[in-house]
Design goal:
By secondary structure, the protein is α+β, with helices and mostly antiparallel strands. The protein has nine helices and twelve strands. α3 packs across α5, α3 runs antiparallel to α7 and α6 packs across α8.
């Protein structure tokens, strides 16, 4: 007769199953999931860990081209198969969103240009279907094989695609951030403009309206590996927030002192008289000259303002620099 910790006879299958179950129970202090929701949460966490694992055979070597792995799960996925309509809608919305975000981030894009995404940016950010891997339903997408114009600021294919993907991941992470997620989503999406807000809403809608969740893993020469999970619930939060926001364009003149900036972020900081510090976006290549010419000096800044009002009444503003000039020094008491 075997004890609870001794290995039973290999021929006694019932005893073997009981022994394995006991060992599994002893190996973890975590309670077993009691509802379908808890079970689904556990499965998504396991999937995210497996996609991040260094032993993942799909990730054994650093890719020559940028790679996005996504795994769908939920009501539309059964036995490693997904409904074709959902997959098609997801791929179309994902590609459109990536291209619109890339155009919003392109350093050579004219300020406030709202025309169609240029063919060159579409080419550099095009995603190609790769192999399917084991998960609820998983697929690999690869970046464009041709090299972009890396010698031009912000237009290198790998660079622009990497920046676009990371911004999409930023929005996904904020949609899952719990309390304050709605404001965090608007803060991340608003600087990218109306078109991106619309496409991010469509991308979220594919998941929210079909009860589908997705785990994303991005890997490129610039990003070693980044993973994010967007559940159907957080996608619903993202969709509702972006669709409910009232977005308005306006122009304004800020009067104050240039107190800092960042070439990496493409911003200058202006301490506006009586209104605190305002962060104003501009071309990264212009930041050093602007700081050299205007730092700690009183200025007048003409800006384009994009304002989003959330359903709760809060306002989120994004500023883009149109013109900067020296202003009259502030009056001294």
């Amino acid at each position: 007769m075997s004890t609870p910790h001794s290995l039973p006879d290999a021929g006694d299958k019932k005893a073997m199953r009981a022994w394995l179950a006991a060992r599994r129970s002893e190996s973890t202090d975590k309670p077993l999931p009691r509802t379908l929701t808890e079970l689904r949460s556990v499965q998504l966490k396991r999937l995210a860990r497996s996609m991040e694992s260094d032993t993942d055979p799909e990730s054994a070597e650093r890719p020559d081209r940028p790679i996005l792995r996504f795994a769908l799960d939920g009501e539309t996925v059964r036995t490693q198969r997904v409904e074709s309509a959902v997959l098609g809608d997801w791929l179309r919305a994902l590609q459109t969103t990536v291209q619109s975000v890339a155009y919003a981030l392109d350093e050579l894009r004219p300020t406030r240009d709202s025309g169609p995404v240029p063919k060159e940016i579409q080419r550099m950010t095009r995603l190609f279907s790769g192999p399917v891997f084991a998960s609820s339903y998983g697929m690999v997408l690869e970046g464009a094989p041709e090299a972009g114009q890396a010698e031009l600021p912000g237009t290198g294919g790998d660079v622009l695609l990497d920046r676009a993907m990371n911004r999409i991941f930023d929005v996904a992470d904020r949609a899952s951030s719990g309390a304050g997620a709605e404001d965090a989503v608007l803060d991340a999406a608003l600087p990218l403009g109306r078109r991106v807000i619309s496409h991010l809403s469509e991308l979220s809608d594919v998941l929210a309206s079909t009860g589908t969740s997705v785990t994303l893993t991005w890997e490129s020469k610039a990003t070693a590996r980044r993973t994010s999970t967007l559940t159907s619930e957080s996608a619903e939060r993202c969709r509702t927030t972006l669709r409910a926001a009232q977005v308005e364009d306006s122009s304004d003149r800020l009067v104050g002192t240039v107190v800092g900036g960042s070439k990496l972020r493409g911003v200058i900081e202006i301490e506006v008289d009586g209104n605190g510090i305002v962060v104003v976006r501009t071309s990264k290549e212009d930041v050093p000259a602007l700081l050299a010419g205007y730092a700690e000096r009183h200025v007048e800044a003409d800006v384009h303002v994009l304002t989003a009002r959330s359903a709760g009444g809060r306002e989120h503003r994004s500023y883009v620099l149109l013109d900067l000039s020296l202003g009259e020094p502030a009056a001294q008491d």
